[in-house]
C-alpha cells in the first residue's frame, strides 16, 4: 500500500536487565533509567488521596458510633423514665380505676417492655391482671386503637417466647385480641405457632385443667377460624402446618385431635399443604423428622374429622408420601411384618445432627398413624373413594387416577405391607354406572377394563413402535399409565394366590356353587382372549424398555416439576425458579418413579404368565417368540460380541468402584428439601442402578433381552449362546488355552514350574489337584477345593485312592474328572441318613434344599449346650452354608464342562436359579402352585381352606406356622413362628385367608430355605454367571443340567461315536460287523432301552441338548475280546463301551440287555 516506506512498523521490545520489578502501577516503567519524573509525582498524589480518604472514613465511623450510643442511652433513659411512671401508676392500689389505668399504662408498656428483663414481665402481668378484671371478654374493645391492640399482641408473643411458663391469662388476652383483630398476628404467624408448640410440649408433661385445654385449643384455632382474606388465610394455615404440626411434642393434640379437627377447615389445610409443597422456600429446610411428624399429625386430624375429606386431602397426602417415600420405607421397615431393617440405615460416625435425627426409630404414635393408611379401615376408605369417583368401567376419572397414583405410592412406602394393601384392594368391589345402569365388579376386573380401554394399551398392542413416544411426559397419558401400573400390581398378586385349576376355569365352574374366596379369584381372572391381549401388550411394552432404553430414558434427561406431576395443580400461579436443584425423577406423575419401575412390573407379570404357561400350556407353542425383531442369522455372533463388551465394562467398573465410594452427591426433593443420609444412600443406589441399566442398554441390548425376556428367542438358540458364553469365559480365564493339558503346560511355562526358584507354577497346579477316597468323595472334595472359589472353573486333576491310600488305575482324558464330579453329586444329593442331608426329595423324587437343615443343626448345637451366637455356633452355621455353596459350585462345574448329571430338581427350586440373574433372592415371590411340588399335603390343605364355604374363623387358625425340627436323638420338636408382625394375635378370616395362603406359601418356599438356597446359588453363580441362567425357565434348566428328555436319536449317536482297537475304522470307512450289529440292535430297542444303554455308558440317560456332538468325552466303543460269554463293560468316566466281538445279533442283544439291566461289568 505504501511502496516508498522502507522502515519497520513494529515497536522495539523493551528489555529490563536490572532484575528488579516495580509493584507501583504509577511508578516509572521498568525500563526507565531513573525513578524521578511525572510518574513518581502521580504515585505520590495517589497515596496522599488514599490517606485522606481513610481519615474521613474513620471520622465518619466515630460519628456513627457516638450517634448510636447517644440514641441507645437516650432510649434507655426514656424507658427507665417510663418504668418509673408505670410503677408509680400501679403503686396506687385502691383509688385508681382499672379501665383508666390500663389506658394510661399501655403506651408506657409498649415503650418500656424488654423481654430479657424479669421486672418487665412482672409489669406485663400487672397490666394483664387489670385487663382480666374488666371481664373475661372486655366489652369495650375501643379502649385502645387497633394499632395498639396489634402491638400488644406482638408484645405478649415476645413475652411468652421468653417465658412460656407465664400465666395463662396473657395467652387468654392474646386469643381475645386475635379473635377481634385477626390481622394483628399476621406478621408473626410462624413465631406465634412455634410458641404454641412449646406451650403444648409443656402441657403434655403435666395434667392440665379443662379450662387450660380450652385456652390452648382456642389459641391454635383462633387464627384459622376467623373470617379473613384468602391469601391471609392461606398463610395462617401454612404457619399452622409447618410451624406447629411439625413439632414432635404435641401430646395434647395426639391424645385428643378431635378438639382441633372439628374447629378448623381441613380442606383449607390440605390446600395450603399443596401450595407450600408446590413452591420452594417454606419446606426446603424442613428436616425429614419434622416432615414425618407433620404427616402423622395431618393424618390424625383428618381421621378425627366427622366427615370424609375431599380430593384435596388425598392430593396433599400423596405429595407428602411421595417426598418421604425413602425415609418411610427405611424407618418404617424396622416395624415390618418380619422386622427387616434396611442396611442403608446404618450410618457413618461423621453424620450430622440432622442425620442422626433422621435415622432414629419412629415414634409408636407416628407408626400408628402410618398404619392407618394401610390397615383395613384405610383401604376400605380408599375403595369407597374409588367407587365415588368411578365414572364407568371403561375409564378412570381424574380423581380416580389420583387415587391410583396414591395407591402406587402406598405400595412404595410400605413394601412390608404391600400384600396387605393388594389383598384388601383385591377383596373389594367397585361400583360403576354404565349403559346397563348401576353395576358392581371386582376391583381387579374393574382396573383391567379401565386399563385395556386406554389409548396407551391399544396403541402398544397394535403399534409396537409407538412405545417410545407414548412414554414421553403427558398429563393425559400419565393417568393411563397409572391405571396400567396399578392393574399390573393387583394382577401380579392375583397370580400368586391363583391355583392352576382356578386360572382358566370353564364358564360352568365360575357360575357353580363355590366358596366366596374361590368365586372371587375366578371372577377376577381373565379369559383366554383377554390373556392373549395382555401378553401381547406386555411383550410389545417390555421389549423397547430393554432394547431401546436409551431412547426412552436418556442419561441427560431432566426431572419434572411438581406442577406437571399427575395433574396436581395448586390452584395458584406457579413460581418460576431459574436455578433448580437436582430433583427426583417421576413417571406417570408419581414422584421418584421412573420407567424402570414400569419395566419391572411389566416384566414380572409377563414372566409369571410365562412360567404358568411353561408349567401348564394354555398358549400356542410359538406365541412367545419375537424373532422377527432380530436378524437371526447373525444373532448369536452379535450377542457374543455384546458379552465381550460387557465383560470389559465390568472390569472397568471394578477398577472405579473404590475410587468414588465416598463421593456423596447432595440430593434434594422436588421442593428443594435436603434428604436424610439414609435416604441419600437409597437414592444413590437407585441412581447407580439407573446408570447401570442405561450402560447395559448401550453396551448389550440383546443381552438384556436374553436376561429378562429369554422366551422370545428359541430355546436351541439360547443353548448355543450359553455354550458360546462358557467357551469365551474359558478362553479368557485360561489365556486362550481351553484344552486342560494345554492350560497346564502354559502354567508350567509361564510360571517356571521346573525352576526351583519359582514354586508358583507348582502351587497353581497343586491347588487344582486332589486325592479323594470313594465313599468320602464330597468331604474330600470340599476340604481340598473349597478355597479355590471360582478358580474351580480351571481344569482339575483327580486321583482316586483306595482304603490303603493307594492310587487307583484310571484313564484321565477328562474322564476321571467327570467320574469325580458325578460321584460328588451322587453322594451329596443322596437324601436320608446315609447322605449328607443337604437335599431332600419330594414324592416325585425331585431334589430341593433341606428346608430344616439349619434348624436341625441349631437343635444339635443346643443339645451340646453350645451358646447361641457364640463363636462355635456361628462357625458351625457358616460351615453348613459353605457346604451348600461348594455343592452349588460342583453343579456349576458340571454345567461349565458340559457334563450331564442324572439328577432332577424341583421346579420351584430351579425357578430360583433363573431368578438369581434378575435380582435379589429377597424379591422372589412364591406361587401357590409351586407348593404342590414341595408339600402336596400342605398344598391340598390350603386349597381346602381357600374353598371352605363356612366361617374360616371357626377353624381357629392364626397367622403362625409350625416347623418341625429333628434333634440328634431323632426326637422331633415343633417350633411355632409368626408369619407377620403379631401373627399369633391375628385370626384367619374369610377376608384375609388369601393373604394367609400367600404368607404360608412364601414361608415354605422362600423364607424357611432362604439360607440354604442363597448359599447354593452363591456357589452356582460363582461358576455360571447368573445372567446366563436367567435365559432359561425351570424345565429348560433341567434339560441343561441333565440332558434332553426327548427320544434318543440313534443316527446322531452313531455319527458322533469314536471307535478304537479292532473296531477302529479303516481307510474304506466300513464298520466292523460287530459294530454294525450293535447299531442294528440299538435301532430295534425301545427308547427306554436305548436310555438304559446310554446311562450304562455315560451315567446319564439323556442326550446333550445340542446333540451327541456336545457329549464330553465322546461316546466310544472298543474291542472287548473274543469271549462271547463275557458281558459288555463300560468306563463311564470316559463314556467308553467295551464290546466283545459277538457273532450274532441275538447274542449281542441278550448280553447287552443283561448288562444294562443288572448293572454288571463296570470297570475303569
Please tell me about this protein's structure.
This protein has a four-stranded mixed sheet with strand order 11-12-14-13. Strands 1-2 form a two-stranded antiparallel sheet. Residues 27-33, 335-357, 556-583, 658-675 and 1160-1164 have low confidence and may be disordered. With 1164 residues, it is mainly alpha-helical. It has 49 helices and 14 strands. The radius of gyration is 41 Å and the shape is elongated. The protein starts with 37 loop residues before the first helix and ends in a 6-residue tail after the last helix. The chain is 56% helix and 5% strand.
Helix content: 55-70%
The low-confidence parts are 27-33, 335-357, 556-583, 658-675, 1160-1164
State the distance separating the first and last CA atoms.
Answer: 105 Å
Averaging pLDDT over every residue, what do you get? 80
Which of globular, elongated, flat, extended, rod-shaped describes the shape?
elongated
Q: What is the number of helical segments per DSSP (H or I, 4+ residues)?
A: 49
Output the structural class.
Answer: mainly alpha
Percent range for β-strand residues: 5-15%
- The count of β-strands is 14
Largest sheet: 4 strands, mixed
Radius of gyration using CA atoms only: 41 Å
Strand order within the widest beta sheet: 11-12-14-13
Amino acid at each position: 500500500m505504501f511502496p516508498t516506506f522502507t522502515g519497520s512498523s513494529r515497536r522495539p521490545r523493551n528489555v529490563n536487565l536490572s532484575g528488579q520489578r516495580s509493584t507501583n502501577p504509577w511508578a516509572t516503567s521498568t525500563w526507565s533509567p531513573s525513578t524521578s519524573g511525572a510518574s513518581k509525582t502521580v504515585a505520590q498524589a495517589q497515596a496522599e488521596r488514599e490517606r485522606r480518604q481513610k481519615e474521613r472514613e474513620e471520622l465518619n465511623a466515630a460519628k456513627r458510633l457516638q450517634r448510636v450510643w447517644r440514641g441507645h442511652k437516650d432510649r434507655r433513659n426514656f424507658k427507665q423514665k417510663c418504668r418509673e411512671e408505670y410503677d408509680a401508676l400501679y403503686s396506687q392500689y385502691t383509688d385508681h380505676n382499672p379501665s383508666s389505668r390500663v389506658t394510661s399504662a399501655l403506651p408506657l408498656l409498649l415503650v418500656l417492655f424488654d423481654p430479657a428483663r424479669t421486672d418487665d414481665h412482672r409489669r406485663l402481668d400487672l397490666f394483664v391482671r387489670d385487663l382480666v378484671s374488666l371481664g373475661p371478654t372486655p366489652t369495650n374493645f375501643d379502649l385502645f386503637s387497633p394499632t395498639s391492640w396489634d402491638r400488644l399482641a406482638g408484645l405478649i408473643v415476645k413475652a411468652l417466647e421468653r417465658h412460656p411458663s407465664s400465666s395463662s391469662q396473657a395467652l387468654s388476652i392474646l386469643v381475645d385480641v386475635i379473635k377481634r383483630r385477626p390481622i394483628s398476628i399476621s406478621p408473626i404467624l410462624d413465631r406465634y405457632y412455634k410458641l404454641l408448640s412449646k406451650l403444648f410440649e409443656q402441657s403434655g408433661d403435666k395434667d392440665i385443667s379443662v379450662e387450660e385445654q380450652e385456652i390452648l385449643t382456642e389459641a391454635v384455632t383462633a387464627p384459622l377460624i376467623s373470617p379473613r382474606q384468602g391469601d391471609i388465610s392461606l398463610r395462617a394455615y401454612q404457619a399452622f402446618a409447618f410451624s406447629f404440626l411439625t413439632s414432635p411434642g404435641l401430646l395434647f393434640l395426639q391424645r385428643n385431635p378431635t378438639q382441633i379437627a372439628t374447629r378448623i377447615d381441613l380442606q383449607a389445610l390440605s390446600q395450603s399443604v399443596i401450595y407450600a409443597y408446590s413452591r420452594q422456600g417454606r419446606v426446603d429446610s424442613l428436616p425429614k423428622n419434622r416432615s414425618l411428624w407433620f404427616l402423622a399429625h395431618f393424618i390424625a386430624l383428618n381421621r378425627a374429622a366427622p366427615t370424609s375429606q375431599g380430593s384435596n386431602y388425598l392430593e396433599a397426602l400423596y405429595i407428602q408420601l411421595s417426598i418421604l417415600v425413602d425415609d418411610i420405607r427405611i424407618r418404617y421397615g424396622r416395624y415390618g411384618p418380619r422386622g427387616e431393617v434396611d442396611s442403608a440405615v446404618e450410618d457413618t460416625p461423621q453424620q450430622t445432627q440432622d442425620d442422626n435425627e433422621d435415622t432414629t426409630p419412629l415414634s409408636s404414635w407416628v407408626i400408628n398413624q402410618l398404619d392407618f393408611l394401610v390397615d383395613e379401615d384405610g383401604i376400605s376408605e380408599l375403595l369407597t373413594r374409588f367407587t365415588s369417583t368411578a365414572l364407568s368401567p371403561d375409564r378412570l376419572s381424574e380423581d380416580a387416577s389420583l387415587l391410583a397414583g396414591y395407591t402406587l405410592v402406598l405400595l412404595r412406602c410400605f413394601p412390608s405391607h404391600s400384600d396387605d394393601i393388594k389383598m384388601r384392594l383385591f377383596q373389594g368391589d367397585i361400583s360403576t354406572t354404565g349403559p346397563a345402569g348401576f353395576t358392581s365388579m371386582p376391583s381387579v376386573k374393574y382396573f383391567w377394563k379401565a386399563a385395556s380401554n386406554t389409548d396407551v394399551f391399544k396403541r402398544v398392542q397394535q403399534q409396537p413402535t409407538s412405545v417410545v413416544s407414548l412414554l414421553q411426559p403427558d398429563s393425559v397419558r400419565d393417568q393411563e399409565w397409572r391405571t396400567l401400573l396399578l392393574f399390573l400390581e393387583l394382577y401380579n398378586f392375583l397370580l400368586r394366590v391363583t391355583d392352576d385349576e382356578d386360572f382358566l376355569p370353564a364358564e360352568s365352574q365360575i357360575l357353580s356353587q363355590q366358596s366366596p374366596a374361590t368365586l372371587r379369584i375366578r371372577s377376577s381372572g381373565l379369559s383366554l382372549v383377554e390373556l392373549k391381549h395382555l401378553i401381547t401388550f406386555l411383550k410389545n411394552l417390555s421389549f423397547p424398555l430393554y432394547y431401546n432404553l436409551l431412547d426412552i430414558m436418556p442419561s441427560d434427561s431432566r426431572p419434572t416439576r411438581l406442577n406437571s406431576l399427575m395433574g396436581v395443580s395448586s390452584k395458584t400461579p406457579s413460581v418460576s425458579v431459574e436455578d433448580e436443584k437436582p430433583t427426583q425423577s417421576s413417571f406417570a406423575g408419581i414422584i421418584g418413579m421412573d420407567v424402570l419401575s414400569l419395566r419391572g412390573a411389566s416384566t414380572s407379570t409377563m414372566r409369571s404368565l410365562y412360567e404358568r404357561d411353561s408349567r401348564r400350556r394354555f398358549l400356542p407353542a410359538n406365541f412367545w417368540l419375537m424373532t422377527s425383531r432380530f436378524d437371526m442369522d447373525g444373532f448369536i455372533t452379535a450377542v457374543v460380541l455384546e458379552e465381550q463388551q460387557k465383560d470389559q465394562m465390568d472390569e472397568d467398573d471394578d477398577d472405579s468402584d473404590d475410587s468414588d465410594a465416598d463421593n456423596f452427591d447432595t440430593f434434594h426433593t422436588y421442593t428443594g428439601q435436603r434428604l436424610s443420609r439414609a435416604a441419600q444412600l437409597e437414592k444413590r443406589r437407585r441412581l447407580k442402578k439407573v446408570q447401570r441399566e442405561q450402560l447395559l442398554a448401550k453396551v448389550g441390548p440383546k443381552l438384556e433381552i436374553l436376561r429378562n425376556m429369554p422366551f422370545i428367542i428359541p430355546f436351541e438358540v439360547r443353548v448355543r449362546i450359553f455354550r458360546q458364553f462358557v467357551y469365551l469365559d474359558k478362553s479368557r480365564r485360561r489365556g486362550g488355552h481351553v484344552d486342560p493339558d494345554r492350560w497346564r503346560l502354559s502354567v508350567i511355562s509361564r510360571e517356571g514350574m521346573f525352576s526351583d526358584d519359582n514354586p508358583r507354577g507348582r502351587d497353581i497346579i497343586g491347588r487344582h489337584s486332589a486325592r479323594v477316597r470313594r465313599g468320602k468323595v464330597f468331604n474330600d472334595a470340599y476340604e481340598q477345593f473349597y478355597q479355590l472359589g471360582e478358580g474351580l472353573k480351571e481344569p482339575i486333576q483327580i486321583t482316586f485312592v483306595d482304603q490303603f491310600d493307594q492310587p487307583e488305575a484310571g484313564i484321565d482324558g477328562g474322564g476321571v474328572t467327570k467320574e469325580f464330579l458325578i460321584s460328588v453329586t451322587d453322594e451329596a444329593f443322596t437324601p436320608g441318613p446315609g447322605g449328607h442331608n443337604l437335599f431332600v426329595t419330594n414324592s416325585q423324587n425331585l431334589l430341593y434344599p433341606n428346608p430344616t437343615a439349619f434348624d436341625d443343626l441349631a437343635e444339635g448345637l443346643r443339645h451340646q449346650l453350645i451358646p447361641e451366637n457364640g463363636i462355635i455356633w456361628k462357625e458351625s452355621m457358616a460351615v453348613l452354608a459353605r457346604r451348600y455353596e461348594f455343592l452349588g459350585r460342583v453343579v456349576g462345574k458340571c454345567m461349565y464342562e458340559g457334563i450331564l448329571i442324572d439328577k432332577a430338581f424341583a421346579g420351584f427350586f430351579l425357578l430360583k436359579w433363573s431368578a438369581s440373574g434378575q435380582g435379589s433372592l429377597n424379591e422372589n415371590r412364591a406361587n401357590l402352585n409351586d407348593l404342590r411340588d414341595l408339600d402336596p399335603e400342605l398344598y391340598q390343605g390350603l386349597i381346602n381352606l381357600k374353598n371352605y364355604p363356612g366361617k374360616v374363623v371357626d377353624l381357629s387358625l392364626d397367622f403362625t406356622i409350625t416347623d418341625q425340627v429333628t434333634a440328634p436323638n431323632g426326637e422331633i420338636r415343633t417350633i411355632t413362628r409368626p408369619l407377620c408382625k403379631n401373627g399369633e394375635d391375628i385370626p384367619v378370616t374369610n377376608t384375609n385367608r388369601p393373604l394367609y395362603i400367600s404368607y404360608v406359601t412364601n414361608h415354605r418356599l422362600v423364607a424357611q430355605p432362604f439360607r440354604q438356597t442363597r448359599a447354593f446359588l452363591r456357589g452356582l453363580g460363582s461358576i455360571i454367571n447368573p445372567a446366563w441362567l436367567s435365559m432359561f425357565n425351570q424345565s429348560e434348566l433341567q434339560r441343561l443340567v441333565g440332558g434332553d428328555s426327548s427320544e434318543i436319536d440313534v443316527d446322531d449317536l452313531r455319527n458322533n461315536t469314536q471307535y478304537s482297537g479292532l473296531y477302529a475304522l479303516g481307510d474304506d470307512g466300513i464298520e466292523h460287523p460287530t459294530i454294525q450289529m450293535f447299531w442294528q440292535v440299538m435301532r430295534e430297542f425301545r427308547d427306554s432301552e436305548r436310555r438304559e444303554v446310554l446311562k450304562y455308558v455315560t451315567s446319564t440317560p439323556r442326550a446333550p441338548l445340542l446333540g451327541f456332538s456336545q457329549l464330553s468325552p465322546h461316546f466310544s466303543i472298543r474291542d472287548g475280546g473274543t469271549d462271547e460269554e463275557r458281558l459288555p463293560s463300560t468306563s463311564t468316566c470316559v463314556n467308553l463301551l467295551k464290546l466283545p466281538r459277538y457273532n450274532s445279533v441275538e447274542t449281542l442283544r441278550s448280553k447287552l440287555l443283561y448288562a444294562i439291566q443288572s448293572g454288571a461289568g463296570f470297570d475303569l
